[in-house]
Amino acid sequence: MAALVIAAAGLLLLPLLLLLWQRRLRPSGAQARVAVVVLGDLGRSPRMQYHALSLALRGRRVALVGYSGTQPHSDILRNGNIEIVHMTELKIWQVGPKVFQYLAKVILQSLQLLYTMLSINKPGHVLLQNPPGLPSIAVTWLVCLLQGSKFIIDWHNYGYTIMSLTHGKRHPIVRIAKWYEEVFGRFSDDNICVTNAMKEDLGKNCNIRAITLYDKPASFFKETPLSDQHHLFMKLIKDYAPFRALPGAESNLPGQVEKSAFTQLDVGSGDVMLQKGRPALLVSSTSWTGKGPLKEYYNKLIEKLQFKHIQICTPWLEAEDYPVLLGSADLGVCLHKSSSGLDLPMKVVDMFGCCLPVCAVHFQCLHELVKHEVNGLVFKDSSELAEQLKTLFWEFPAAEGKLRLFRRNLRSARQLRWDESWEQAVLPLFSSSSAEQHGS
Asked: Mapped to the 3 state alphabet, what secondary structure does the chain carry?
């Protein structure tokens, strides 16, 4: 195993040295180019997609670097200023001690990322997502040092706190990862983070100065018109029974009225209205621990439940359908718990963009986003959530009560959208004069 890793490293070092030599001969113009880097699935990195799109809309040529897997949003795919640079996700041999397997993965990922970064056109700025920080922070810093690019880290969380969930806080690997993030994080030129709590923690414990850029909903997260709701429901009916019209709700005039469990369309006039006595639509977003390996496990547990008035549906939505569903729902439920207690759930940001009230599980800095009894409710355990659901839906849909109040408060808040917030806080970091000062 060791010989294979060393051999692979040796095979990659030669072309890397050649690339370094060639880059000295490449033309200038780097200040107009930005590399947005994710050592993960690009399609599951919405914040980095938003960064790339905001940069591209302002004339920057963006290389969006990361692993393939989930399809990025269509706005990314259609934008001529964005080039998606896919890396192949490495499969490490499951042989030998766990520590050695992890070391092999870090070495190969380092060489792969270094090779990829040196293969693209030289950027004036590199924006890196953290986590995962190991090995991406050190490798990206080295590339920026060699090329004179400005190095910016967007801190979504701490990688070592995520690792501690599996290994425990005192595990040697976790301690090394913590030291690594704190030391190499200081080598960046600028830093962005997702909460004020994280900004304070970075300054206090890591001596890293950062600006806070709260996650904000993109423009396509908004309340969904009834006609679009009906179109989505009729699309989902083909594969998911809970969206079908309830028994006894079928039309007496076949072909004239088209019905889902929630809406009905008068085919003649084209008018869409909500069904009388419709069920409430509750959405809880989840990736099922990544690409879905535990979805089947949870579906089997769900099948054992003997609900009389509840149907559970676990659809896998296209990127364009997800905001439409959120904008059609009555309540969102968020079960996100931060490993560090310093980041906020992106799913709630998207829900609020659709003026969708939420029930969210409590953790340290959740108050920076969810205001209890204003735009939603905060719960600490399952029994408290159950009581909240009973209160919110007791006479639904005849009386929406708090749901209507929360939705009205979300509408009146008129929060900044991502692009507006990004332009105020982040765009100055990508000024051409700043890039030139760093040798571009």
From this structure: CHHHHHHHHHHHHHHHHHHHHHHCCCCCCHHHEEEEEEEEEHHHCHHHHHHHHHHHHCCCEEEEEEECCCCCCHHHHHCCCEEEEEECCCCCCCCCCHHHHHHHHHHHHHHHHHHHHHHCCCCCEEEEEECCCCCHHHHHHHHHHHHCCEEEEEECCCHHHHHHHHHCCCCHHHHHHHHHHHHHHCCCCEEEECCHHHHHHHHHHHCCCCEECCCCCCCCCCCCCHHHHHHHHHHHHCCCHHHECCCCCCCCCCCCEEEECCEEEECCCCCEEECCCCCCCEECCCCCCCCCCCHHHHHHHHHCCCCCCCCCCCCCCCCCHHHHHHCCCCEEEECCCCCCCCCCCHHHHHHHHCCCCEEEECCCCHHHCCCECCCEEEECCHHHHHHHHHHHHCCCCCCCCHHHHHHHHHHHHCCCCHHHHHHHHCHHHHCHHHHHHCCC
Grade residue 439 by pLDDT with cuts at 50, 70 and 90: very low
- Specify the pTM: 0.79
Q: pLDDT digit string (tens) for 375-408?
A: 999 999 999 999 999 999 988 887 678 999 999 9
